[in-house]
Amino acid sequence: MNLKEIYSGHKTVISFEIFPPDTEIEKLYSELDLLNIYKPALISLTYGAAGKNRGLSIEILEHIKTQLNTEVMPHFSCICNSKTMIEESLLKFKKLGIENILALRGDIPNEKILCVKDFKYANELVEFIRQKTNLSIAVAGYPEGHIESPSLDADINNLKRKIDAGGSVIYTQLFFDNEKFYRYVDLVRRKGISVPIIPGVMPIISIKQIEKMTKLAKIEIPKILEKNIEKYKDSPDDIKKFGIEYGIEQCIDLVENKVKGLHFYTLNKSKATTEILENIKEKL
Question: How far apart are CA 135 and CA 129, in angstroms?
C-alpha cells in the first residue's frame, strides 16, 4: 500500500520508526512483535545506502514485510551516496516489494572525509527516485525549522522544493508543543503545499534523551515540561511516568485536531509507545 492510500481515510493511522541495532537483533524483533499488535500502517527504518548496517537493514525490512506482514518505509539519505549506489539499493527495495521511501539529505560529514557529491539536497534525491521508480516518496518537515536553516520560512521554502520534486507525504521532526505543529501546518498550507503532514511523536523516557534531542535539533521545551523535568530529575521512574502522561495528552490533542497519522519515534523500545496507544486507542 502506498502513502497516498495509507493516508486517504478519515481516521488517524499509526506508524513507527526504528533503527538497525548494533547488537541483539532478536531483541528488536521482540519489541516489533509488541508494536505490531497495534496494527501500524507502516514501520519506517533509518537506512543509508553507504551507511553502517546496510545488510542488516535489508534483513530487518524483509522481516517486517514478510514475517509481520506490515508495510515498511526505509529512510534514504543522499549525502556521500553516488547515483549508482542509490540505484542498486532501489533495485533491492523493488525485489522486496517495498512501495514507500523517506528521502533525506543526511548529515554533512567532516570536511576531511572524502565523499562523492552526486547530490547536495534532498529535493535532488526525491527527483532522482521519482524518475527511476514508482515508489511513493515521503520527506521530512521541521515544525520549529531545521537546525541549519536561517529561518522557518526559508525552511518551508526548501520543503516546497521537495514536494514539487515528487514528495507525497511530510513526516515531521518531533516536537513537544502542539501549537508549534499547528502553526507550522498553517504556514505550509499557505505555501500551496497540500500533501498530508504527519506529526512525529517521541515519548519522553529520560532527561538524557531530552538533552540530546534539544542539542541536535531546534526543539523548544514548554514551561510545563521544563518544570516537571526539574521536579523529577532525580527519579528516572517518575520521568518515564510523566513522559507517558505527557505523550498521552499530546496525542489525544493531535487526534482531536484530525491529524492524518501519528508517527512514533520508538528508539527501538515498545513500552512507552504502547502505553500511550493503550490510553488513546478509543480516540483512533
Answer: 7
**190: Cβ contacts below 8 Å, ≥ 6 apart:** none
pLDDT at 109 over 70: no
Domains in the chain: boundaries? 3-280
Q: How far is CA 190 from CA 43, 97, 160, 162, in A?
A: 30, 36, 11, 16
CA-wise closest residue to 3 among 91, 117, 124, 130:
130
Quote the CA–CA distance of 221 and 229 in Å, as a whole number.
Answer: 10
pLDDT tens-digit series, residues 206-265: 888 888 888 888 899 999 898 988 898 889 999 999 999 999 999 999 999 999 999 999
Yes or no: say if 209 and 246 are a contact pair by the CB < 8 Å rule: no
Distance of CA 231 to the CA centre of its chain: 30
pLDDT in tens, 148-168: 899 999 999 999 999 999 999
pLDDT band at 19 (very low <50, low <70, confident <90, very high): very high
Closest of 175, 164, 118 to residue 142, by C-alpha: 175
What are the pLDDT digits (tens) for 30-71?
999 999 999 999 999 997 544 555 668 889 999 999 999 999
Q: Is 62 a catalytic residue?
A: no
Cβ atoms of 107 and 78 closer than 8 Å: no
Architecture of domain 3-280: Alpha-Beta Barrel (3.20)
Q: How far apart are CA 240 and CA 168, in angstroms?
A: 35
Within 10 angstroms of residue 155's Cβ, the number of other Cβ atoms is 21
What distances in angstroms separate CA 154 from CA 105, 121, 145, 175, one per listed residue? 16, 14, 8, 19
* Choice among 17, 99, 144, 275 that is catalytic: 17
How many residues comprise the chain? Answer: 284
What is the grid cell recorded at 116? Answer: 562523492
Assigned C-alpha cell, 148: 541549519
